[in-house]
């Protein structure tokens, strides 16, 4: 079972061609640098329309079979920012720690971090996570903050994603520890295959 990841960029202007979407490229680039497990990506660029966000998330989970879906954009307080509302509407269960941790780490980068309403949820056996729309926020929230020596100061949320997908009976995900070290309890670590 190959790891399937959905990437959803929610932006009125990028979806209309007013500016070039940087969300999907930033997500793709970060995942390619961070994951050592093979994976396939399914990308969608859509406007800030709640019904369209909901149907896109449902399609990616129920039809495409994504184990993980990352959205970017539309998490703020502006009236057209409805990504968290759409995500909650299609959720079976909420995972509040993801939103809490993203706001914690983001506060180390911008004081307006608390303006993001981002949520993490489970639909069926898939994890859906909202990231803010600023392209730089993708790396900041997923990877966390490191000091000059590369030591983690505030962990990003991706450290917990592999174990979460494992608990949902999804593929075993391994990462490049230089980018983000995946944490799982000792009892959940699979030994490296012997040759
Ligand atoms: N897909 C994207 N590509 C490039 N830059 C983006 C993208 N989405 C957001 N941004 C940048 O991050 C800012 C905050 O993102 P937010 O999701 O709040 O967008 P917005 O201001 O509601 O506008 P829009 O939905 O038209 O992108 C935007 O104003 C824009 O500068
Ligand atoms: N890591 C990180 N988080 C961030 C930001 C950022 O630049 N980096 N921008 C903040 C700002 S200015 C806003 S308004 C909210 C919501 O952004 P969104 O509407 O683009 O999702 O996310 C916040 N969280």
TrEMBL record:
It comes from the Bacteria. It holds the Pfam family MoCF_biosynth. It is an enzyme of class 2 (transferase). InterPro entries: MoaB/Mog-like_dom_sf, MoaB/Mog_dom, MoCF_biosynth_CS, MPT_Adenylyltrnsfr/MoaC-Rel. It catalyses: molybdopterin + ATP + H(+) = adenylyl-molybdopterin + diphosphate. The keyword Cytoplasm does not apply. It comes from Amantichitinum ursilacus. Belongs to the MoaB/Mog family. GO terms for biological process: Mo-molybdopterin cofactor biosynthetic process. Residues 6-152 form the MoaB/Mog domain. GO terms for molecular function: ATP binding; molybdopterin adenylyltransferase activity. Its EC number is 2.7.7.75. Catalyzes the adenylation of molybdopterin as part of the biosynthesis of the molybdenum-cofactor. Keywords: ATP-binding, Molybdenum cofactor biosynthesis, Nucleotide-binding, Nucleotidyltransferase, Transferase. The keyword Calcium does not apply. Pathway: Cofactor biosynthesis; molybdopterin biosynthesis. CDD domains: MogA_MoaB. This is Molybdopterin adenylyltransferase.
């Amino acid at each position: 079972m190959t790891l399937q990841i959905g990437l959803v960029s929610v932006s009125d202007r990028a979806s209309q061609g007013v500016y070039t979407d940087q969300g999907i490229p930033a997500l793709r680039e970060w995942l390619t640098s961070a994951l050592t497990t093979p994976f396939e990506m399914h990308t969608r660029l859509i406007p800030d329309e709640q019904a369209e966000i909901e149907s896109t998330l449902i399609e990616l989970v129920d039809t495409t079979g994504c184990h993980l879906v990352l959205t970017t954009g539309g998490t703020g307080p502006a009236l057209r920012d409805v990504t968290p509302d759409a995500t909650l509407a299609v959720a079976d269960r909420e995972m509040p720690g993801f939103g809490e941790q993203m706001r914690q780490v983001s506060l180390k980068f911008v004081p307006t971090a608390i303006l993001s309403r981002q949520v993490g949820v489970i639909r069926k056996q898939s994890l859906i996570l909202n990231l803010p729309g600023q392209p730089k926020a993708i790396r900041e929230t997923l990877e966390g903050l490191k000091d000059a020596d590369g030591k983690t100061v505030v962990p990003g949320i991706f450290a917990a994603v592999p174990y979460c997908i494992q608990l949902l009976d999804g593929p075993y995900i391994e990462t490049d520890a230089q980018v983000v070290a995946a944490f799982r309890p000792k009892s959940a670590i699979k030994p490296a295959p012997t040759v």
